[in-house]
Amino acid sequence: MIYSLVTIVYLVLLIGIIIYKSRTVRSEEDFIVAGRGVPVYLLVGTLVCTWIGSGSLFGNAGLSFRTGFGELWFSAGAWIGIVVIYFIAGRVRKISKFTLTDILEKRYNHTAKILGTATIIVAYLVIAGYQFKGGGRFLAILSNGAIDVETGALISCVTIIIFTAMAGMVSIISIDIFNGILMIVALFTALPFAIAAHGGITEVMNTINTTNPQHFSLTEGRDPWWIVGIILPTFILLVSESSIYQKFSSAKDSTSARKAVFGMFIGVVAIEFVICAIAIVGYAIYANDPRFFLTDGSINQAMAEEVILRIGYEQVPSFVGAMLFAAGVAIILSTGNTFLMVTSTNLTQDILKPYFFKKTIAAKKLIRIQQTSIALLGLLAYVMVTQFETVLEMAFISYTMIGASLAPALLASFFWKRVTSAGAISSILAGMIIPVLNKVLEVTSLSFGPLPVNTDYIAIPSLATSLTLLIVVSLLTAKPAEEKWKPFFE
Asked: Is the pTM here over 0.85, yes or no?
């Protein structure tokens, strides 16, 4: 009872904040980039919450349950990506565009922008979709099975749509500071209680050393290509994360944007490390639980992804578990809001506004159009959820599609004056096509050259092809004019 009560109270608190903040939204700029006046502390909170979503709560936890501390390679890709974007955050804010694809258009051309928009819409709907899937699992555990996963996913979908549509970026940034604080407090409180539930740190270590000692090693038993394969998706996604660039544009100034990236690094590293640690403790707790293993002795990946919430519901004191479930609400809600917001912004700004509406359209009408887009895209994301078995699989496909398509062209715009529009377009197309082709070949049991490859490795051929085309095509085509690259190097 206490789990449901705390979860509902926290949800009501967030609703109250959003209703209050929605009254401050008067312009398109307010709705999309929160009026471009967000201070550092709020920006840190929303950047952390952008990254820590169902992919972390379920996907990272499930991978940690399966591989132990080897999961940190997956997380480390994002940590490296944060360091990279630190050096361009200020320049992004100075350019002051609404979306990442606006940056692609300014540096390259309109074709690059449209291809980038198509990639973001498809991949981000998958990411939004697995927030719904995570929400479905969350509600199934919270209700002790009274709500099934499919119904829970639909409830999560509708809730996230409503939250996002009410006040746009203003609502997201306003509640994310509370979400970020709750995540950190709940997870760090849960870890020692989870260890105590298994008899202490010595007992945890003994159990893991007996059952699977490789869980304590970063490298032992790891295929080097596997390490590369799991680092790349998070790295290339983070450096091309459209929602992060949109939030940079929300910053008060370029200095605030850079300071916020530093805070984001600390928050993300801390939270992802403790998620990994809790899941490894969970492996010790559930080492002999048949729910977590298949008949052949292999790990049940879908069940492994629920390990943190299972610990919260079954192993720790109720007040700790209730906090953990409230943090689960924060994680799922904040990330779902962000990805629906970014997807709808790209659809509205890049396609609907220039091609179907007058550029002088009233601000309130444009906000209504984007709110309608949020609802329609949210429902489409819910439908897409049914095509994937696990959150981690969805994460690998969407991360790779976004990262391999946009990261090379985006980073080249800030670091390589010689890159051309033709090179960028070729790179974006390759990054879009290969992950989708790999999934189609996997489903149809067909093959095309080295494809299909295991989902864990899909980032390697995708990024290699994208980078090769970016470099080769750029060198084979005429140098860009100085006015194209100069704003990105000032």
From this structure: no
